[in-house]
Specification:
about 425 residues; alpha/beta; Rossmann fold; 2 domains; seven-stranded parallel beta sheet; flat; binds 2-acetamido-2-deoxy-beta-D-glucopyranose
Length: about 425
């Protein structure tokens, strides 16, 4: 029976299964509209029929490949000419360091009139920007969680712009207060992330919308793949970015009639201000150990918390220090005649989303666990439990074999 089926048939079946599996997953996640779905299923049936008419497998695969290439080429096409930057005003938040610092310099050099908000007007980042940028740059002191500071920045911006509108708002300011298992994370961690990443961005966006509508401008928001995918130990940060993503995607629909275009940028891991601040993470770690209840610390073990911190540090150490993929993407979103809804910036993000969207959960979960924080230690209580189970089973096995008993006990220690 098995001999009736040739190798190409199994390859074909495998490919088909992946496609159908992808469709099923998308239906379940309600990401796909009806039309592409029908087209997809239609194509699958067509391929199946062609197969039934004994088309050689190699030819069929070639045809499929060719169709994919044509489709990709038709979608990309030659890039349309970018809009001029000259005379366009852009406000960008969180410019003390990281993406903000790099983007302000880039936009200023391109000829934009840049309004840059910083937390600390007398800090190194602000002074460096003031020194290295043109006279078009306006620095504004804003903590985006403080509504009156946001209002003040709006008034200052309006005064400077006069009757003109604002072409771009780049929502860049964001924080990751701390990281770790949900049970081991303080509530202040969740509140801190929500306050800045969600409520702060919402407050800035709402305040500047009248100016953006006036210019039929653009909103560009730096989010994170952690807002779409369950990265281990990043629940607080990820949940705030997930809330942000939904807000921004809803705004995108609502602002379409106004001619305001809305894009989200999803960067891979980059060395930005806070992530490379070792002293900050050490302090957070010490505070966490002090705030955890003795029972929790007993169950998880201090070494478990320490391992998480060390893994995060080594991950942050491997992050890209060249921020240009993100600054390039921000420029593209500001100046492309047709900005995309979503941009992936940096190596690996596209692949990450492909695996998240099309692979079964067993694979995508494993991918996240191994890619990000590859934890080796189990929580302490579980380690003791499994030691206990192991002891028990060895003991049972060794009942018939008393000579080995001592050896086995030795190994376990
Ligand atoms: C800002 O970016 C420049 C590179 O353009 C870098 O040398 C500098 O350290 C950055 N400043 C801060 C405060 O991040």
């Amino acid at each position: 029976m098995m001999d009736d089926y040739t190798l190409p048939f199994w390859i074909y079946l495998g490919v088909l299964t992946v496609f159908v599996g992808g469709v099923m997953k998308r239906i379940l996640a309600s990401h796909l509209g009806a039309a592409p779905l029908v087209a997809w299923l239609g194509a699958t049936v067509l391929v199946e029929r062609l197969w039934a008419f004994c088309l050689p497998a190699v030819l069929l695969l070639l045809l499929l490949g060719l169709a994919c290439c044509l489709y990709a080429a038709a979608r990309t096409g030659p890039p349309p000419a970018a809009l001029p930057a000259h005379g366009k005003a852009v406000l960008i938040t969180g410019c003390d360091s990281g993406f903000g610092n790099a983007t302000v310099k880039r936009l200023d050099a391109l000829g934009f009139e840049v309004f840059a908000t910083v937390l600390d007007m007398s800090g190194g980042g602000a002074r460096e920007l003031q020194r290295s940028c043109s006279a078009r740059l306006t620095l504004l002191q804003v903590d985006i969680t403080q509504p009156q500071q946001v209002q003040q920045a709006l008034m200052d911006t309006k005064t400077k712009l006069g009757p003109r509108g604002l072409w771009g708002l780049v929502n860049n300011a964001g924080v990751c207060v701390n990281f770790g298992d949900v049970e081991l994370s303080l509530m202040s961690n969740f509140h801190g992330c929500m306050d800045v990443n969600f409520f702060g961005t919402l407050s800035v966006t709402k305040s500047f919308l009248p100016l953006l509508r006036q210019a039929k401008g653009r909103i560009i928001t730096i989010s994170s793949p952690a807002g779409d995918q369950p990265f281990p130990c990043l629940a607080a940060y990820g949940a705030s970015k997930a809330a942000l993503n939904l807000l921004i995607n809803t705004l995108r629909h609502e602002l379409e009639p106004w001619g305001v275009q809305v894009s989200t940028i999803l960067p891979s891991s980059f060395k930005t201000g806070q992530s490379s601040n070792q002293a900050y993470w050490e302090l957070q770690y010490k505070q966490l150990l002090q705030s955890l209840s003795p029972e929790l610390l007993e169950d998880y073990g201090e070494d478990y918390v320490t391992e998480t911190k060390e893994l995060f540090q080594s991950y942050a150490g491997q992050a890209n220090s060249d921020l240009s993929p993100v600054t390039d993407t921000i420029v593209q979103a500001l100046l492309s005649p047709k900005p995309q809804v979503r941009y992936f910036a940096g190596p690996g993000v596209g692949l990450m989303y492909f695996i998240h969207s099309y692979c079964p959960f067993s694979i995508s979960n494993r991918f996240l666990q191994n890619l990000f924080l590859k934890k080796k230690l189990m929580p302490r209580a579980l380690r003791m439990q499994s030691d206990f189970d192991l002891n028990l089973s060895l003991h049972n096995n060794n009942n018939n074999n008393n000579n080995d008993d001592n050896n086995e006990e030795e190994k376990l220690k």
